[in-house]
Design brief:
There is one protein chain. By secondary structure, the chain is an alpha+beta fold. It has four helices and six strands; from the N terminus they run ααβαββββαβ. α3 packs across α4. It is globular.
């Protein structure tokens, strides 16, 4: 993206609430992270995709609704204090899962997609989470945590041969993630 295009984007798309963000700071963000709050992750598992897919679906169902949403505590005096709740399964078709996650405090909705491919050695999973809010630029790693929390909840991240591949350029604020909160 050319610098001129960045200025045009910033001048025409950002709502008035963001008008006090310094332009230099915003340009640095645009160059460092995806242009929209989102995250792409590729995972490898040493097990069949049918097993991985089934465990993710079960975890989404287990974290449906707000009964598991944490409240504040001495160790977390300000919300959010974890987001292992408010997941909804949208569809399971062939080699893909579609789901949503609502943030516990503001109830913003993020769309989640998983695609599965058996690669002969195990299962390769491409995961993507993105904010539905069109003007969301930064997310403190929330979209990363939407995905990683599910994998941690299934126990798959502790399985032998688990490999994760992502970075700031494809995962907003990956370097600032805190999945204990987000």
């Amino acid at each position: 993206m050319k610098v001129f295009e960045i200025f045009v984007f910033l001048g025409s798309c950002l709502p008035a609430a963001y008008s006090n963000i310094p332009v230099v700071e915003t340009i640095q963000h645009v160059l460092r992270y995806p242009i929209h709050a989102s995250c792409r992750i590729v995972w490898d598992f040493n097990q069949p995709c049918s097993n991985v897919k089934q465990r993710i679906v079960r975890q989404i169902d287990a974290w449906k609704g707000d009964r598991l949403c944490p409240t504040t505590s001495p160790s977390c005096p300000k919300l959010p204090c974890g987001q292992n709740c408010l997941y909804d399964l949208v569809s399971v078709e062939g080699s893909s899962i579609k789901a949503t996650h609502k943030t516990p405090v503001a109830r913003y909705i993020d769309d989640i997609d998983f695609s599965f491919e058996d690669d002969g050695r195990g299962c390769n999973v491409k995961a993507f989470s993105t904010s539905r809010i069109w003007y969301a630029l930064m997310d403190l790693g929330t979209n990363y945590c939407n995905l990683r929390n599910l994998i941690d909840g299934t126990g798959l991240s502790r399985s032998s041969g688990f490999v994760e591949n992502t970075r700031n350029k494809v995962c907003t604020q990956y370097d600032q993630r805190n999945c204990e909160r987000f």
